[in-house]
Amino acid sequence: MKSLTLSIIFTLFFASTLLAQSPDGAQQRKLLRTGQLVLEEIQNSPDHNIPAKLIAKAKAIIVFPTMVKAGFFVGARYGKGFASVRSEDNGEWGAPAFLYTAGGSFGFQFGAEAVDLILLVMTQRGLEGLLSEKFTLGGDIALAVGPVGRHAEASADVFMQGEIYSYSRSKGIFGGVSVKGTVITSDVDANQAYYGKPLTAENILLSNQAGEIPESGKQFIKIFNHLAPHKKRK
Fold first, then answer.
1. Helices 26-43 & 215-227 angle (0-180, nearest 10)
2. How is the chain split into domains, by residue range?
3. CA dist 110 → 9, 90, 221, 233 (Å)
4. pTM for the complete prediction?
5. Residue 10 pLDDT class (50, 70, 90 cuts)
6. Which of 31, 35, 65, 91 has the fewest CB atoms within 10 Å, i.e. is most exposed?
7. Strands 164-170 and 143-145
């Protein structure tokens, strides 16, 4: 069973790598559009949306649309996504950096599912962790399931002590969705396909080395500023 699970992960990895190396960045543009749709659908659901007060104060947002999770008593997951950091100057989202994630979880799991995952990074320490070479969810930095829905908005201040909040939307049958232990890594190949040069997440999100942002990236920033607007702290 374990070897079968590993085979699935390796197949997904190599297939995604080939797609990421598309010279025109087509796969990255599609990923951005899918991520925008995921956030839009979640925010348009009154009972499951992310509280505006919480998302407004996030330092970074990470989106993994359709992260594949397969479990045959030993679970494993793989996916491609992107991150954006909010500017301290004007509160707007910046150029996206592409990431990939892989991880395993052990337990009595069976089946396979796709999960849309959104992570809100709330603290500087969480942001520094994200920008490291490899970042493990739920490691040294606290990870918690984020509050949702119309009733969570009034009490959102209670949740402001967290470092990273996770929001997941399951598309399959599974005995619970857990992302703890998942490792997030810069997808240098995808960043090169999109920006034309091999960049890490830190190069893009912190050092502003992306250069000219493609038109689809500018559209992404515009849409995310609308879906996850900034509100200044009082």
1. 10
2. 2-226
3. 15, 46, 38, 45
4. 0.79
5. very low
6. 91
7. parallel
3-state secondary structure 85-110: EECCCCCCECCCEEEEEEEEEEEEEE
DSSP H helical segments within 87-170, as ranges?
124-130
Residue 66 to residue 79: CA distance in whole angstroms: 7
Question: For 191, how many CA atoms within 13 A lie in the half-sphere containing its CB?
Answer: 24
Rounded Cα distance between 209 and 173, Å, is 41
Cα–Cα separations (whole angstroms), residue 65 to 99, 168, 214: 12, 10, 21
Distance, CA of 172 to CA of 150 (rounded, Å): 25
Q: How far apart are alpha carbons 169 and 116 in whole angstroms?
A: 5
Nearest to 114 by CA among 39, 174, 26: 174
Contacts by 216-221, CB closer than 8 A, 24 or more apart? 216/25, 216/28, 216/29, 216/32, 216/33, 217/32, 217/95, 217/96, 220/32, 220/36, 220/84, 220/96, 221/84, 221/92, 221/93, 221/94, 221/95
Residue 3, CA distances (Å) to 18, 71, 152, 177, 221 in order: 23, 12, 42, 22, 41
Distance of CA 36 to the CA centre of its chain: 11
Cβ pair 194, 28 in contact under 8 A:
yes
**Taking 60 as the threshold, does the pLDDT of residue 158 lie above it?**
no
Q: Within a 10 A sphere around the Cβ of 105, how many other Cβ atoms?
A: 18
Q: When comparing pLDDT for 179 and 97, which is higher? A: 97
